[in-house]
Specification:
Number of strands: 4
Number of domains: 1
CATH superfamily: GSPII I/J protein-like
CATH architecture: 2-Layer Sandwich
CATH topology: Pantoate--beta-alanine Ligase, Chain: A,domain 2
Mean pLDDT: 85
Oligomer: single chain
CATH class: Alpha Beta
Distance between the termini: 103 Å
Shape: rod-shaped
Number of helices: 1
Length: about 120
């Protein structure tokens, strides 16, 4: 029987090893992406919670009608303690003030919001 007459069935050991090396490399890259995706998701969750704290505190201050220049506090959430600080700034129109809110998340990142509100 000549070499050309033989039919090859299956894969050689070299072909299997190359395929496994390619698959292993792809899996390592994908696992790195999954890890960074989880980190990004955690950061986005903290950011969303900080924005929620800022909005809630701005609304609470507006409802209480506080005229204090600087107020601050803490809010405990599932992710930890969020610290906030609010200050007022005069505007060109004496009927309005700018209310600034800075919230610091447990990981040290900050969110800053502001709104203009009318004075009573």
């Amino acid at each position: 029987m000549s070499l050309s007459a033989r039919t090859q069935h299956g894969f050689t050991l070299l072909e299997v090893m190359v395929a496994l090396a390619i698959a292993a490399t792809a899996l390592v890259v994908l696992m790195g992406r999954v890890g960074s995706s989880a980190d990004i998701q955690h950061d986005l969750s903290l950011h969303a919670q900080a924005v929620g704290v800022a909005v809630n505190e701005l609304e609470r201050i507006a409802l209480e009608g506080k005229q204090a220049a600087d107020v601050s506090g803490e809010v405990e959430a599932a992710s930890g303690i969020f610290r906030w600080k609010s200050s007022q700034q005069a505007t060109l129109d004496a009927k309005f003030v700018r209310q600034d809110m800075l919230v610091t998340a447990p990981d040290g990142s900050t969110v800053s919001l502001f709104l203009y509100r009318s004075l009573p």
